[in-house]
Amino acid sequence: MTWILGPHWAAEVGRMPSVNGPEKECVATQILRQLPLADKTSVWGTLGTIRPHLSFDVEKDVQTLLGTVSGRGVDYRTIIDLLTNRSNEQCQQIAKEFLDFTKQDLLTTLQAAVPANLEGFVAGLLRPAAQYDAHEIKAALKGPEVETLTEILCTRTNQQLREILRFYKNDFKSDFEKDVASGTSGWLKDLLVALSQGKRERYSGVIDYILIDQDTKALVDADGGGHAGKLQESEWVRILTQRSPEHLNRVFSCYQKRRGLPVEEAVQRIFRGQAQAAGLTLVSLLRNTPLYLARKLYQAVKGPRGNARTLARIMISRRETDLLSVRVEFRKHYGVSLYSFLMAETDGNGQAAVLGLCRAEDL
Predict the structure, then answer these.
(1) Quick check: 20 pLDDT over 60?
(2) Model-level pTM?
């Protein structure tokens, strides 16, 4: 992969301290450290691993896919290689051209042709991102898989959430809030509904110390640590689902200084059961989304209850947004690159798919 940086970045890299020996960092890691959170996509336009294919030819791609499913044996690797080398927008163009040319739905055609372990990847790569999220949410509600629900609802923009709910209603002829109410209750229901409403503020770059103090006091009072003397989970739900991550990380720091305990311990005391699991997931995502996702990828592969769907969802949904950041956090946390880890711990066509999305080794 070739990085193209502006002239001001050449100066920034030049000012970075040189580190020798085992502590030496890769250039990509050093550059990522320099990026402010509020403007993390401004330099490259994305921190994803997948970009629009420069030599994109939709008619040629359609003919290639037709060739893979028309012969005696389906060429799975060609399908994987093509779809993991196209942006989601380009995949939508391919699907449209395929339908116009053959009068058949591409997703249905490919899912019938590939083995079961690739059907999820094909669906995730071919569906619009918001539709894919809607289907993942529907599947997670059956559990309910509270960590999955919290992850998706917390890490999408307000506009993306509106698009997800639109696809949800259209594809399932159902209302998300009603489905949440029928499958969950109490503070878990309130938390998931609040996240889905897309009211999270966008960080302006200005630190509002007055609001930080107000929110900290509200959380302290709501957990019984102030004069209120009683628990008020609704205040926690309101603040955690409406404030920007940058603002909340300052609130978390102030909260710990004032209460003498990290916010995670407060969540464990205030919430119970599945609501507690959702609250802890939410705090982890707000603190450091790429690190949370790196940990989930590791658990999805090596955990006692490996989860191929979680592995596919994170790799697919983050491929055009911040998978590079996830790769950096993975290497920092586990001491091995994500690419090497997936190469060692996965196999077959599923391995080809995740490696195609991961793209490259981090040295």
Answers:
(1) no
(2) 0.84
